[in-house]
Write a structure and sequence with these properties.
Length: about 160
């Protein structure tokens, strides 16, 4: 990915819940392989019914049910090939495939967790980021605080 594209993404991605910044119940745990155990996103705490907002501007490319859960996918144009996609589940989508959304637009409400799903200890939004079939850590694309340079000692 080109540096200018990466900088553009950093400046335009936001938390899909809040403000305030949501509590992260479970963080990114990259799997060792495509079918290995891991956690391919972030779980963000919120009560069922909480509005879910588009983390970035894009086009809704999926809004429906997968394995009994409501899922929403937004493709982010101009983010390379293949383009980045954000995913949100479990949700009750409020938009349909083909809808263009702007960062911050309400796109869904958080659905209650399925009764037989131990994924989250309480209601949460699973927020994912993909490029093609590769899962990425959504935290990498959020605007964080300023970088701080610390002194380096003992290096010639």
């Amino acid at each position: 990915m080109h540096l200018t594209t990466h900088l553009l993404i950093v400046l335009t991605l936001m938390w899909p819940l809040g403000p305030p910044r949501p509590e992260i119940i479970r963080g990114w745990e990259p799997p060792a392989g495509p079918y290995a155990a891991g956690h391919r996103g972030l779980d963000l705490a919120a009560p069922a019914g909480t509005p879910v907002r588009a983390a970035a501007s894009g086009v809704v490319t999926f809004a429906g049910r997968v394995a009994g859960r409501g899922v929403l996918t937004i493709t982010l144009p101009g983010t390379g090939q293949p383009p980045l996609r954000t995913t949100y589940e479990p949700v009750n989508p409020q938009v349909t495939a083909g809808t263009t959304v702007t960062r911050g637009d309400p796109v869904a409400t958080l659905a209650p967790p399925p009764a037989d799903d131990p994924h989250c200890p309480r209601a949460c939004l699973h927020w994912g980021l993909l490029r093609g079939d590769t899962y990425l850590n959504p935290l990498l694309l959020l605007r964080q605080g300023p970088s701080r340079l610390l002194p380096v000692t003992g290096v010639p």
